[in-house]
Write a structure and sequence with these properties.
This protein is of the alpha+beta class. Helices cover 34% and strands 18% of the residues. Strands 1, 2, 6, 7, 8, 9 and 20 form a 7-stranded mixed beta sheet that branches.
């Protein structure tokens, strides 16, 4: 019935979709197996993509040839650039999305991708021969052979849904959990654990009084995620709204604490620290009399809204009573209550940096199975797992991004090197080189690398080359052309900056706070003619490179010093037990994690500088 595939991807969430697309676009014959063809790329939680650090990841996925940026643009209903009041390293794009349109666009893109086949069934076991994964066994008992398998099971592995004192098996509301894989992997020697995540109630927007809430519009000049020409910025947008809980809401919620599965101990897994449930918030932050809530529309046409900030697993009756005490929610109707879900994951220190497992060859893990949370974190892992599965079966070196090259590199290095015992979420603070890893330059950082492995198209490379050429032209202009006082002083006066008294280079004036490239065009017709040849993306990139030139140069210098350690390789068969000078902890952790380089070894939790010095001496460094 089935041919032998190159790569089988198990699960069609954000990680699975990116893995299937990447492997197929590189030339592998791919089978995407999902328990429900109608929920491919479903937004199980909030209807949004991007945000702080996550927006940078979506841009990186797009630059590498993934689909998340394109799908997000095509299904967007609002676009906002977050953190614009801070430095450029902190700017983070975010879209609100039409949930149904997002899933539809993903499915259509996959169906239009040559080499991707689909099959609907649960996967209950893996085929493992000679220490390598060579296929799957479905719930119907069908064996399907392949050269590699990527597991992206999300929250479905032995998933249990909790609402108050009620609990039932499920990987998502209305969908059954997946069984068999955890037990088999544990029998093969893998360690597993439990994590939990949650979701808020969904509300009928027709029952809300928005006049009692604060409106939150999108950007006046909205941008987009994808660097390609296949998407366009939004011409119209839907607003979101802000509301707040109060002490009366908190008092009602507290009445359900005895029935809370989290407080009663029925949930054993740890939840995301930075996205706590509402009951967790009012316990941990008892001094606060209110908490902010975001009312997010779920699409252009639907009346369903997502109540971001009100994740809960309290009894549904308690949820409803508390909701009606929120201003604007007095007459609210609930489509479905919030719930918590507990599921199996596998501590990611059991993986190589390629996301291939150390115990079983040609078996890759991506997404929440690795202990992460978030669409973006899952999507980038899926992309990298799909890339590396294709490279592995074609006997090519793995594609690994460094911490100074991408947020994706930071995420995977953190997981594999440090592990995680709570759902891992990306933040800008996790990246040492965030001035280098901005959202505006992901295409310049990554497109050529992706093209070299056969993923990003030549057309993408040409766009990057043109962008680099144009930014170079603008920067050269600013560094070589001078400006007269009468041409720039009106602009300086408008931003409260001191006027110039003589002709000076434009580059020096641009370095002033609040000064922008477009300010030079107001009273300077020749410059206006020059700058209007370029699109806004190029102008923004040029301005950032000039304003932050000193910081960027310093960060490059620091990164280059650290990269020297990354270039000192440690073989997978390195025998650490022979180095008796190492601490017992270092020998145990080096032997278990098997760091790829001295740099990675230095980042392992608990490793002392003296342990690294011993390795360097042994290697003759």
């Amino acid at each position: 019935m089935f041919p032998q595939y190159d790569v089988i991807v198990v699960g069609a969430g954000h990680a699975g979709c990116e893995a299937a697309a990447a492997a197929a676009n590189m030339g592998s014959r791919v089978l995407l197996v999902t328990m429900n063809m109608q929920t491919i790329a479903q937004m199980s939680c909030n209807p949004a993509m991007g945000g702080i650090a996550k927006g940078q990841i979506v841009r990186e996925i797009d630059a590498l040839g993934g689909y998340s940026g394109i799908v997000s643009d095509r299904s967007a209903i609002q676009f906002r650039m977050l953190n614009c009041s801070k430095g450029a390293a902190m700017w983070s794009p975010r879209t609100q999305n039409d949930r149904m349109l997002f899933a539809q666009e993903w499915r259509l893109m996959l169906e239009r991708t040559p080499n991707v086949d689909f099959f609907q069934d649960m996967v209950k076991a893996l085929l493992v021969e000679g220490g390598r994964c060579c296929g799957i066994v479905t719930g119907m008992g069908i064996e399907i052979k392949s050269k590699a398998v990527v597991l992206t099971n999300g929250t479905f592995l032995n998933g249990i849904i909790h609402i108050g004192e009620k609990q039932f098996g499920g990987g998502r509301t209305g969908e059954k959990s997946s069984t068999g894989i955890t037990e088999q992997l544990v029998s093969l020697g893998f360690d597993s654990g439990r994590m939990k995540t949650g979701t808020p109630p969904r509300i009928d927007g027709r029952s809300l009084d928005y006049s009692k809430m604060e409106v939150q519009e999108g950007d006046v000049n909205p941008g987009k995620f994808s660097y390609s020409n296949s998407t366009k910025p939004l011409e119209r947008q839907l607003p979101c709204y802000l509301a707040y809980t109060n002490e009366a809401v908190h008092d009602i919620l507290k009445t359900g604490f005895e029935q809370s599965p989290m407080f009663a101990g029925r949930i054993k897994g740890l939840g995301p620290r930075y996205c706590p449930s509402i009951e967790d918030k009012i316990t941990r932050f008892a001094e606060r009399t209110r908490h902010q809530l975001f009312i997010e529309p779920e699409g252009w046409e639907t009346v369903e809204v997502y109540l971001n900030g009100f994740s809960t697993s309290l009894p549904e009756s308690v949820q409803y009573k508390a909701l009606t005490l929120i201003p604007g929610f007095e007459k609210c109707k609930m489509f479905r209550p919030g719930y918590a879900i507990e599921y199996d994951y596998f501590p990611p220190q059991q993986l190589k940096l390629s996301l291939e497992t150390k115990l079983v060859g040609n078996l890759f893990f991506a997404g929440q199975i690795n202990g992460t949370t978030g669409y973006e974190e899952a999507g980038c892992q899926g992309l990298m797992a799909g890339i590396n599965a294709h490279l592995k079966i074609n006997e090519k070196d793995p594609f690994i991004l460094g911490r100074s090259e991408a947020y994706i590199g930071v995420l995977i290095d953190d997981l594999v090197t440090k592990g995680t015992d709570e759902p891992y979420r990306m933040f800008t603070s996790r990246a040492e080189y965030r001035i280098l890893l901005r959202q505006d330059n992901a295409d310049i950082r990554l497109t050529r690398k992706s093209n070299e492995i056969g993923l990003a198209s030549e057309e993408r490379v040409r766009r990057v080359q043109n962008k680099s050429r144009d930014t170079d032209e603008i920067i050269h202009y600013f560094k070589t052309v001078s400006i007269e006082p009468e041409e720039i002083n009106p602009s300086l006066d408008s931003i409260g900056s001191n006027p110039i008294t003589q002709k000076v280079k434009m580059f020096g004036v641009l370095s002033r706070p609040k000064m922008t490239i477009l300010d030079f065009a107001l009273n300077n017709p020749p410059f206006k003619d020059f700058i209007m040849k370029y699109d806004s993306e190029v102008i923004e990139e040029s301005e950032i490179l000039m304003k932050y030139e000193g910081y960027i140069v310093k960060e490059h210098e620091v990164a280059e010093k650290i990269i020297r350690l990354e270039n000192i390789q440690l073989g997978e068969d390195f025998n650490y037990s022979q180095l008796t000078s190492l601490s017992n902890e270092a020998r145990e952790k080096f032997g278990r994690i098997k760091p790829r380089t001295i740099g990675q070894a230095s980042r392992i939790s608990g490793i002392a500088p003296s342990d690294i010095s011993i390795l360097m001496i042994y290697l003759g460094r």
